[in-house]
Amino acid sequence: MKRSFIILLAGSALFSSCKSKHNGTATPVYAPITEAVFAPGHIEAGGQFTLTALNDGYITEVPVSEGDTVSIGQVIFKQDNTTAAIAQKSATANLAIARQNASDNSAVLEQLNQQLHTATEKLANDLSVRDRNARLYATRSVAKVDFDNAELAYQSSLNNVEQIRQNIAATRLSLQQTLINSRKDQETAIANNAYYDIKSPGAYTVYTLLKRKGDLVRKGDALATLGHAGGMLISLSVDEGSIAKIKTGQTVLTELNTEKGRTYTGHVSKIYPSFDEQSQAYTVEATFDTIPAGLMNGTLLQSNIIVSHKERAMLVPAACVSPDGKALVKHGRQTDTIQLKTGIVAKDYVEILGGIHADDKLIKAY
After folding, report:
1. What global pTM score does this model have?
2. What is the distance between the alpha carbons of residues 71 and 56, in angstroms, rounded to a whole number?
3. 282-316: buried (b, 16+ CB within 10 Å) or exposed (e) per residue?
């Protein structure tokens, strides 16, 4: 039998009633019984998380202190951003150049437009020459070779104008693409530079600062612990043999290490589905019905999670029941070994579901 549960018994009279006047024997008694799973744990702020570094670099400033309440976007750490600042400045300058080159009055496009203007004028002149030669050729005033040369010059100018126009369109597209890439590079540089200011993602309390001014940190290093001060939670570790009994909404009785002897009531609010290899337990969260005044994050505690309750149960001392659920029952001068059907099993008492009667005498043999 597994004796891993705490049993809370209603009424102190039960302990004396289980004692028989007969030496070394006990008779079953009926009493209310509550089964609870013991779970150690600690206090944790609601929404608690670890703030991490997004880049390598030295800490140059820590403008907050432990216990401060910070707002969204508030800087908690500043890192040396010299290289990132240079990259941002360069990206901004490149963007300005790209924007100028992509404008309608840029030097690149102005030169091409001037080429188009010259080519268009030449095309008009070549068209005039061709038309004149066509009229003269019709009257046999010029030779056919002169007309052919004029037609060839006109077609060449026409092709040249079209080529320049296509070149202008392609250049505009290329300059726009360069502008888009430069804008992206600048935005990326600004974002990278901003990562050196480690900011709060919301309204939180700073519980722990893990780095100080002058510390060298690497990307991914833990910097601080933040959480909601108004939402303190009970974080509990429950063993593998007991986790199946835990359900949300169950009552939790908690004793803080800072207030020995005082019990606070709460309820199970969340059961994490994964097994924590480090603690070798499952994590269960509970909330206080009323949060204790002056509660400190990280405070160690012990809790009993109430998993079942019976108003009337047959109980015998654990010393009367063997590990495999058997008992020695005395009938006059005869002693019989009886296989019991047990329910809740604890350190001191065992619930009996079947196998004996209320007036049987059990020998305390274990």
Report:
1. 0.63
2. 25
3. bbbbbbbeeebeebebebebebbbbbeebeebbbb
